[in-house]
Amino acid sequence: MRLVLLGPPGAGKGTQSVVLAKKYALPHISTGDILRESVKSGQPLGLQAKKFMDKGELVPDEVVTGIVVERLKKSDTMKGYILDGFPRTLKQAEDLDRAIKGAGSGIDLVLYFATSSAVAIERLTGRRVCRSCGQNYHVKNIPPKKEGICDKCGGELYQRPDDNEATVRNRLKVYEDQTKPLIDYYARQGILKRVSGDMGVDELFKVLSKVFSDAKLV
Ligand code: ADP
Ligand code: ZN
Predict the structure, then answer these.
(1) Structural domains of the chain, ranges and CATH numbers in brackets
(2) What are phi and psi of 153, to 5 degrees?
(3) Catalytic residue among 36, 123, 127, 128
(4) Neighbours of ion ligand 2 (CB under 5 A)
(5) Which ligand ends up closest to the CA of 152?
(6) pLDDT score of 50
(7) What local confidence, expressed as pLDDT, does residue 102 receive?
């Protein structure tokens, strides 16, 4: 099953990806995670990308598409994968299509997580992430047992530099301008399925499981 998760920042794509990847044994490919990893390890690519990420702007298409195309060459993607946060522009979508259709296998399904900006803003500005294991929390909705400390590993929780309100608003604007056209692009291909990103994690997961079985993907 080759999946694309589409939707605004804060729609819960990352959270669902983790659950789906586990249940269906598929690799979770998040361009945001890959970029943050290269920032952390101080790679030249990361240093270049950080300037864009901190402002809530998109990293240039060629950079991101290059990362994904390389990742898709690994053998663990043979049975499928979950693309989370990619493609985010029409150019990325077209280049992805060219790269994988050339290999004889297109995207099976695009899940569009429709989410209101109020929900997205509330989720993102309250999000806290574990520095060691990457687990996500929320100051109100999913608080850790001990403030500032990860329940799972005891690591320190921090706020992503792009999760402040001004940058979040810019990310949502960038999404409206550059990513929203992809809804039409995939709807025209007949592979778009709209779900509500405003639902809770478990509820949405159940909806998605049914979408896959109805579409005979599992
Ligand atoms: P979110 O979806 O919550 O904004 P991500 O972790 O997916 O967060 O992305 C964080 C940042 O990484 C984005 O704001 C952008 O700068 C960069 N990024 C991630 N994926 C892409 C992409 N496909 N194209 C361009 N930039 C990207
Ligand atoms: Zn942790």
Answers:
(1) 2-213 (3.40.50.300)
(2) -130, 0
(3) 127
(4) 130, 132-133, 135, 150, 152-153, 155
(5) 2
(6) 96
(7) 77
Nearest ligand to the CA of 96 is: 1
Per the annotation, the verdict on 171 as an active-site residue is yes
| Residue 217 phi, psi dihedral angles, 5° rounding | -90, -20
Region 50-72: what's the mean pLDDT? 97
pTM beyond cutoff 0.70: yes
Active site residue: 160, 169, 180, 194, which one? 160
Least Cα distance to 52 among 175, 171, 179, 176 occurs for 171
Q: Where are the beta strands (DSSP E) in the chain?
A: 2-6, 28-30, 81-84, 109-114, 127-130, 136-138, 157-158, 192-196
CB burial string 122-137: b at 16+ within 10 A, e below: bbbbbbbbbeeebbbb
Active site residue 36: no
Q: Rounded to whole angstroms, how far apart are CA atoms 92 and 6?
A: 13
